[in-house]
Amino acid sequence: MTDPRWRLPAEWEPQAAVLIAWPHAGTDWTERLAAVETTYVALASAVTRFQPLIVVVADAALRAHVQAQLHGGGADLSRVRFVELPYDDTWLRDSGPITLVDGAGGFRLTDFRFTGWGGKFSAAQDDALITGLVQAGVFGHAMHKRIDWALEGGGIESDGAGTVLTTWKCLHQRHPEQSRESMDAILRDGLHADRVLWLDHGYLEGDDTDAHIDTLARFAPGERIVFQACDDAADHHHDELQRMGQELAALRTADGRPYRLHPLPWAKPILDEGRRLAASYANYLIVNGAVLVPAYGDAADAEAARIIGSAHPGREVVQVPCRPLIWQNGSLHCVTMQLPAGIA
User: Fold this and answer.
1) For the chain, what is the HEC assignment?
2) Which percentage of the chain shows pLDDT scores above 70?
3) Residue 334 annotated as catalytic
4) What Cα–Cα distance (Å) separates residue 26 from each residue in 55, 92, 221, 264?
5) Is 269's pLDDT higher than 80?
6) Residue ranges per domain, the chain?
7) Is residue 3 scored above 80 in pLDDT?
8) What is the structure's pLDDT at 4?
9) Average pLDDT over residues 309-338
10) Mind listing the pLDDT tens digit for each residue in 102-128?
């Protein structure tokens, strides 16, 4: 039996900071570095309006460059902390810590193995990132627990009350030899969850995470689920996302009630040299007092922001231009990791 004190908080609970890693010429952003930096500056400026931001940089030269970028972009530099560490890429949702809390001021940095999304990309430096951050003193006296099992933060959603939501497609790709029952037990044990809800449907073309849940469906306060829908019957995503919506409608809360569902609008196809990009509105970030929503320059941006705001009442809605991010197959939530209040 797991220790009942520990739990994985919901993203809408109070936060200490947001953690990001800055793109540079040694990452996969090289070809379009200037473009993606505009998104990172907008993201940093938005986060620091509400709370601290921890920025991982590769070296002192990059730190100086980023400071100048943030100063020019209007970020509150008094809320920015820099940490110099090596990293392969900038998707900290997946290589950053999944932090458990115990209700008495204790924190556990759950450090699952990061394999570059099932071995698609080199990931040795990213897999060591949490250890580097611990050694740099970023997390104070938090416990650090390594778990030798592949899992990315974007592959799970927590309601903060013992329920985790995930997708079979992703976890089966990472662990094809394991049954759903065995993976269910590992998730419940590692995350101190009471139950795991699985989705069998849902995907986005241009997403190389094998259907991370944070591109598809998100828990929200008040037993809500916000999810990426598709109302275009001619689009090849339509049937699969319709089936995912049906699965979500069939889910029940821990006390047996249906969730309140908030379907998100569907952006028109965004192509890059003929390749379709995964423009998910579900990939938003919650911070203290606000929700940061991806914008893609599409007519659906405003409606997506309105719906996400309605699912997170009392928070300011801030749109962040994310079209440069989806060139590398992720979006706003994918490049960030929130840290619970009190840890940093």
Assistant:
1) CCCCCCECCCCCCCEEEEEEECCCCCCCCHHHHHHHHHHHHHHHHHHCCCCCEEEEECCHHHHHHHHHHHHHHCCCHHHEEEEECCCCCCCHHHHCCEEEECCCCCEEEEEEECCHHHHCCCCHHHHCHHHHHHHCCCCCCCEEEEEEEECCHHHCEECCCCEEEEEHHHHHHHCCCCCHHHHHHHHHHHHCCCEEEEECCCCCCCCCCCCCHHHCEEEECCCEEEEECCCCCCCCCHHHHHHHHHHHHHCECCCCCECEEEEECCCCCCEECCEECCCCCCCCEEECCEEEEEECCCCCHHHHHHHHHHHCCCCEEEEEECHHHHCCCCCCHHHCEEEECCCC
2) 99
3) yes
4) 16, 16, 39, 35
5) yes
6) 15-340
7) no
8) 59
9) 98
10) 989 999 999 999 999 999 998 999 999
Which is the catalytic residue, given 170, 230, 322, 334?
A: 334
Fill in the amino acid letter for 341: A
Own/partner contacts of 26-34, CB < 8 Å, gap of 24 or more, are 26/58, 27/87, 27/88, 27/89, 27/90, 28/89, 28/121, 28/328, 29/90, 29/328, 32/324, 32/327
Q: Which of 314, 311, 257 is closest to 282 using CA atoms?
A: 311
| One CATH from 1.10.10.10, 3.40.190.10, 3.40.50.2000, 3.75.10.10 for 15-340 | 3.75.10.10
Q: From CA 178, how far away is CA 190, in angstroms rounded?
A: 16
